[in-house]
Amino acid sequence: MGALSRRWFGFAREGLPRRFGLRFALAAAVCLAGPIRAETMEVQLLQLNDVYEIAPTPGADGGRGGLARVATLRQRLKARNPHTLTLLAGDALSPSALGTAKLNGEPLAGRQMVAVLNRMGLDLATFGNHEFDLSEAQYRERLRESKFQWLSSNVTDASGRPFPGVPSSRLMALEGKDGGRLRLGVLGVTLASNPATYVRYADPLEAARSEADRLRRQGADVVIGLTHLSLAEDQRLAAAVPAIDLILGGHEHENVQQWRLLSRAHRPGSCPDPGTPIFKADANAGTVYVLTLRYDTVRRCLHIGALLQPITGALPADPAVQAEVEQWQRQAFAGFRAEGFEPGAIVATTAVPLDGREASVRNGPTALTEAIAAAMLAAVEGAELAVFNAGAIRIDDVIPPGPIRQYDVIRVLPFGGQVVEVAITGDLLAKVLDQGRANRGSGGFLQTAGVTGDGQGGWRIAGQPLQPARTYRIAVSDFMMTGREQGLGLLGTANASIQRLGNRGEIRQQLIRYWGGGR
Questions:
Q1: Domains along the chain?
Q2: What does the DSSP 8-state code read for residue 261?
Q3: DSSP summary character for residue 482
Q4: What is the spatial distance between Cα 199 and Cα 291, in angstroms, rounded to a whole number?
Q5: Pairing of strands 256-259, 222-228
Q6: Phi, psi (rounded to 5 degrees) for 365
Q7: Closest to 475 measured CA to CA, from 517, 452, 505
Q8: Which residue numbers in the chain have pLDDT < 50?
């Protein structure tokens, strides 16, 4: 077990730094309710969140992540303690490069992820916002295929009924070898950021409060909040719902460990109460959290030990799960080849990291966004600028220096789409660029080529001041032309200020061509 067996227990600090690959071993004690027998019960939790890749992502020493490696870790934990639960805090079915591959004419749409998680032995999952990228038919089919338990306290179908087989929470009674018992409750909540027509969201904080209270009334000794919320929302939840003992969260994509310290004084003989800790691991199983819960059935106290475990080549792949991964990779890669891609083919070599992290590309240009915009510009002869929405980039990772393969391009832009040649008036173009700037921090932030600010809130096109009365020829992504991007509805309507001149090639193929020197 190596580092897994080395823990220390004490009081934790709030606001610990996020740091990829760093192992934390911290603990706290929380006073709880519910007697049974004199025994300290121990439960291990293995937490994942925001997992889009079933295989390791590229990098040194075999890369990071890989669900076959996580399966090995899970087996080691269960060998140490049969009371081990594996939990996923949302975002697994989408967006995934493999999920866009077509099999018999239909996209996989998360089939590969459910199959691998089934094989790995996942126990519980709550929904992330991206689960609802799927069509309703695809989503319901993924639920039927799942051998693990989905749960949600605040997501129902559009009529307000729970989805089949999706309870609002789970209450488990775990028996100790000396007759002790721990009743463990798990609830799940999701942020309402994806307004799919077949889904209804209740307020996550109020739903969590209600469900935590219900679990306590049913006898839960410990309540876990399995959440897919922003960190700020998790912090509000921790402060507002003391019935939740710990929060296992997702959505951030970078590891987080925070403890909400309470101001009330410690009473002699009572359990110290440092509040509700929040844990989030790195996306794509780059890390996972291993949490050890020790519950004293006499003092009714909970001790929480936490370890952030990097998932690297140091963990061997479980053969059965690896075989499942490879089977789906073969099928997906065959689908990509049918669309004209060769996933393993090297496109180019980069000397610099290509940053596709959501926090980066939705707030400013990176070497990766500049390459995509330049490829679009090169695809439209005579274009003066190129514009695309940062939300098209889904890799949420950094491509390290070294070879770039076609599969990397698919990971970057899994939904593809056409580069569209458009004639647009300067007046409307200025409004589009202004809205893109206002969308900073979201998927509607616009990445460009041939555009700079003029230092006074205006714009320069190809080095010259934007002229409102002029007509510009531009390259734009076809998604933007639907008008569905935030604040850009005018692009999707019949408008004398804009004229669609034609498609100029699939955006991923244009990026491959650009990187390959075919400018």
A1: 11-322 (3.60.21.10), 341-515 (3.90.780.10)
A2: -
A3: G
A4: 32
A5: unpaired
A6: -75, 150
A7: 505
A8: 1-27, 29, 31, 33-36, 263-266
Q: Rounded distance, CA 176 to CA 203, Å?
A: 37
Helix (H) or strand (E) holding 91: none
Q: Which two tokens stand for residue 232?
A: 């700020």
Give the chain's radius of gyration (CA, Å). Answer: 25
DSSP-derived 3-state class of residue 256: strand
Q: What is the DSSP string of 387-447?
A: EEEGGG----SEEPSEEEEHHHHHHHSTT--EEEEEEEEHHHHHHHHHHHHHTTTSTTPEE
User: What's the CA gap between 351 and 417, in Å, rounded?
Assistant: 28
For residue range 29-45, list pLDDT tens digits in order.
Answer: 454 544 445 689 999 99
CA proximity to 507, closest of 373, 398, 401, 357: 373
Pairing of strands 471-477, 402-405: unpaired
Give the type of residue at 341.
F
3-state secondary structure of 367: helix
% the chain with pLDDT above 70: 90
Nearest to 300 by CA among 271, 335, 327, 279: 271
**Cβ density class 301-316: b for 16+ within 10 Å, e for less:** bbbbbbbbbbbbeebe
Distance, in Å, from the CA atom of 372 to the CA atom of 412, rounded to the nearest integer, reads 10
Residue 476 near residue 388, CB atoms below 8 Å: yes
Condensed to tens digits (0 to 9), the pLDDT of residues 93-138 reads 998 899 999 999 999 999 999 999 999 999 999 999 999 999 999 9
Q: Where are the alpha helices (H) located in 219-298, listed in sequence order?
A: 231-240
Cβ atoms within 10 A of the Cβ of 56, count? 23
d(CA 414, CA 95): 8
Q: How far is 296 from 277, CA to CA, in rounded Å?
A: 19
Burial class (CB within 10 angstroms; exposed 0-12, middle 13-18, buried 19+) of 85? buried
Q: Which residues pair with 224 in a beta bridge?
A: 186, 246
In whole angstroms, what separates CA 58 from the centre of its chain? 18
> Which residue in the block uniquely carries the two structure tokens 């599969």?
407
* Cα–Cα distance measured from residue 96 to residue 148, given in angstroms and rounded to the nearest whole number: 20
Q: DSSP H helical segments within 45-197, as ranges?
A: 67-80, 111-120, 136-145
Residue 48's H or E segment, with its range, is strand 40-48
